[in-house]
Amino acid sequence: MTEIQDAPTARYTWGGDESLFVEFDESMSLQANYLATTVAHGLTALHLEGILDVCPANASLLVRFDPDVLDAEHLKARTIELEQQARESTQHTVETRIIEVPVWYEDPFTAEVAQRFREGYHQDPSGTDLDYAAKVNGLDDAREFIRRHHESPWLVSMVGFVAGLP
Asked: 88, 115, 139 — which closes off a domain?
C-alpha cells in the first residue's frame, strides 16, 4: 500500500442542511477506504452531541447531524482534524476477520444461469464466464483463473445488495 499521505486531498461538501459528505478519492483504494473508516471511527468515538449517523463507504463518508444541536462548521473542523491525524499517523491498523466463503465453480445451477446470460448479454458468448475472466486477465485458461482466485485471501471493504442480481 502506498503512503496514506499520498492519497488525494479530500473534498468536503454539504448534503443539504443536515449532512456533511467527505470524498477521500474518486475511485476505490485501500488508502481511501482506510481514511473513510478511520475518520468514521474517530467521529463516533468523539460522541459529539448532534451527530445522528456516521456512514463510511469505500472512498467516502457521510455524516448526518442535527444543525440545531451541532454547528456545521464545528463538525467540519473536527472531521478535518481527524483526517489529518489519520494521514499523519505512522501506525495504520485495519480491523479484519477471516471468513471462509465456499465457492462452487462450474456447477450446474450457475452454468444454467450463465448460459441464459451468455445468449443475450455476454461480452464474448463463445465461452464461459470463467473463460472470459481468464482471457481479460491475461491467463492461460479458466483453470488458471480458478487457481488464482482460490489461492489468495481477499480484502472485502463493503458488502451490499443490488436488486436483480442472483
From this structure: 88
